[in-house]
Design a protein that fits this description.
Elements: H1 3-9, E1 14-18, H2 34-43, E2 48-52, H3 61-70, E3 75-78, H4 84-92, E4 97-101, H5 107-120, E5 123-128, E6 144-148, H6 162-174, E7 179-183, H7 189-198, E8 202-205, H8 207-211, H9 215-230
Parallel strand pairs: 1-2, 1-8, 2-3, 3-4, 4-5, 5-6, 6-7, 7-8
Length: 231
Amino acid sequence: MTFIDTLLAARRPLIMEVKLRDPHGNDLLGERTVTDLVTRYEQAGAPCLSVVTGRWFGGTTRLLREVTATTTLPVLQKDFLTRPAQLEAAHAMGASAVLLTAALLPATSLHRLVTCALTLGLTPFVEITDEHELDHLPDIDRCVVAVNNKDIRTRERDPGDLQRSLRLLPAVRAAGCRAPVSASAITDPHTAARLLDAGYAALLVGTALMRTDDLDTWLTTLDTARTGALA
């Protein structure tokens, strides 16, 4: 299945992220290897993974190659991708989805890159922070649209605005997106539960999962909180 189809079919729709540093430059991997982390996420039932190759977070394309060589799960490459050649390289390195940041791309470029990604068999993972960035987005039913709760202008060093996800969800749904995702600044399982119960198809969680000492408890708490909210 494609990245988007795997995500929509998941019982616990969390995209679990691999990144080497947080926005402030602090190490996140510790004494673990990348293989250790990927294996742990697989054991925890992750449907999809995200790999941050952007230099703000200490990433490189080598990290993407290492992850895709380790797992059969669909993998998102998160970086500031602006050219078709970068999408072709992501595909060659085993990615299943690619980040396209609407705020950085003129509408014509975003349209071209979405089309290019789909032609390559990649899921476009289109990141927005404003409703107008949905305008004229092609093939939105085949895209993941991710609301970024943080500000890239500050290199995502701000605490984040989770209300942005709640404000934009109706517009994302109305535009025809099947897979709206809330991304960044999700620090605890109760917050994650509220976003899923609000109608998000999935969440992307990075730093919180990498920092937790007990991933199983974090995930079980999420499941319980969702059940309680829906009861």
